[in-house]
Each structure stands twice: as C-alpha cells, then as structure tokens.
Amino acid sequence: MEKYLEIAKIVSVHGLKGEVKAEPWCDSPEDLCRHKRLYFSKGEKEIKVKSARAQKNMAILKLEGVNTVEQAQGLRGRVLYADRDSIELPKDTYFVADLIGMTVEDFESGKIYGKITLVTQTGANDVYHIKDQNGRMYYIPAIADVVKETDIESGIMKITPLRGLFDED
Description:
Elements: E1 4-14, E2 19-24, H1 29-33, E3 37-40, E4 45-55, E5 58-63, H2 69-73, E6 79-83, H3 96-99, E7 103-106, E8 112-121, E9 126-131, E10 137-141, E11 147-151, E12 156-159
Parallel strand pairs: 7-12
Antiparallel strand pairs: 1-2, 1-6, 2-5, 3-4, 4-5, 7-8, 8-9, 9-10, 11-12
C-alpha cells in the first residue's frame, strides 16, 4: 500500500496573492481543505497549507512560500499527495488506490471474475470496473447486496453478483 495518495491537481492560479485552484481527487473540495500538510512527489517535499476554502467543485489553497502569481503559475499541473495516515476513513470505506488491481471472486464458488481496473462515482453508489482475463469489462455496484468481503491485505474482493451480470449470453 502506498503511503502517499494522490489527492488533487493544481489546475490554475487564483487571484494575485499566490493562491492556487486545485481539482480534488478525493470525495469533495471540503475534504481536501481539511489537510494542513500536503506533499509533492509522493512525500519527497512537504507543503504546508496556510489556508484553504472550497469554491464550487474546486479548492482554493494558499501554500506556504507561494506569494506571487508567478510562483503559483509554476505549480500549475502539479499533483498533490496526502499522507494516508492523516486520513480517517469510515468503517467499510476504502481508498480507491487500494481497490485498483484487486482480484474479484465469487463469494460462494471462488470463481475469479477479474480485476478491478477503475472505480467511478455515480452519486448513489460507486461502480467497480472489472476486467476479466479475456479483456471483457463488467461493472458491479459497490453495494452490500453485491460486495460481501473486501480484504485489502490479500487483494481479494468477494462478491455475490447480480443475476445476469456475468452471463455469457
């Protein structure tokens, strides 16, 4: 498991005092704004967040040592990371980075359906994109009726698929 997780990308400058606008790759701009320390390059350089606020679907960040438009412009396109240990997840919630690559198998039979390649958010629930050994894609809802066990340590997710989901017909 990665210690540092991608959490946002700096997309532009905001204002004249060195603030940056960041696109959150976490659940919400408010979640990004809670971080007082972020990192470049998977933890190699710590960045202190002096202030942060949500603005629509973005976060406006004032980073320590960034005081001019030119300095802020130099950060455009940079990815920001958060230390996994600084994030508390609710029970039965996982980092997307930990789910990608997990083997998905049948809860009853142990049949392997494939690996998780992507997680998308639909509003009602997340959807796991599963790619089988032949390259076919399947989509399973991340709901309790389907996902029975998620073992991050072993890299295995056990599911009871919805009827017809993996039918070859």
